[in-house]
Amino acid sequence: MAIKPNYQKDADNVVAVQTSKDPIEQQILAAGNLSEAQVEAIRGFQRRKGLTFGEAAIALGLVRRDSLFLALSKRYNYPVLNFGVDEGRFSRELVVGYQPFSTAAEAFRSVRSALATGPLSQGKNAFAVIGPHRKVGVTYFAANLALSFAQMAVPTLLVDTNLRKPRLAALFGVDPKTEGLVEALTHGDAELPPVTIDIVPGLSLLVAGATAPHPQELLSSKEFLTLSQNAQRNYGVVIYDTPAALESADAYVVASRVGAAILAARRHRTKAKDVSKISRALEGFQCDIAGSILSRF
Questions:
Q1: Which domains does the chain have, with CATH numbers?
Q2: The whole model's pTM is what?
């Protein structure tokens, strides 16, 4: 639902004040470079094309993408990624960072809002993202959801518990040899794991680390329980990326420690019976299902 801002105009008919709650729209209007007619043109284009306000403004050529990204980053400490500067390090899969005005980013913000008004308001701040098979978007979803919470200024930790085929280090441009979860669990460092603090503002990352010969045993250990409990105390939100649930029991072990899960499925790829199977298994582990996501990519 669109909320119509209240405007005050100066002598040059330029928008000076607005009351939108969207930080991106706020930044565009607060710059004072758009006339009321231009704002209405953006809103009309936004409605016709089903875009966000920022997308519509850029598409009409009334706002430059790079200048808006920079302004957002500086003024709000809002984690955005620049195609020309950051793509050599960060994967383009991080759409919430690279394309914060896109419909995909808006979808992640909608999920974030649902979690904030649901489980988070009830004191649950840790979520294991679980999918039945590989290539259904579990890592993609976990990474972008974590980044969206960081953009809301919530201290967020993203943990790679996919010790079989980890991908988060690659997505965030971290050296694959960097110590991570495996080292913390095997070396007795669960109290002080090797977390990369603020890999982008507000988002910290614990990569998988070295190859684990027995992933399930590590995730079932008391060290992992200690690590997860500490993470929940020290961060506003903790997101866990997990391996395919129907290919190993690792994801269920993580979910049982975390206590809440988000089910990820992919259109035309994931079978309903597989999602049902995971749901029943999670109930057996006394893990709450915070929600389910269907990706269309």
A1: 8-76 (no CATH), 101-295 (3.40.50.300)
A2: 0.79
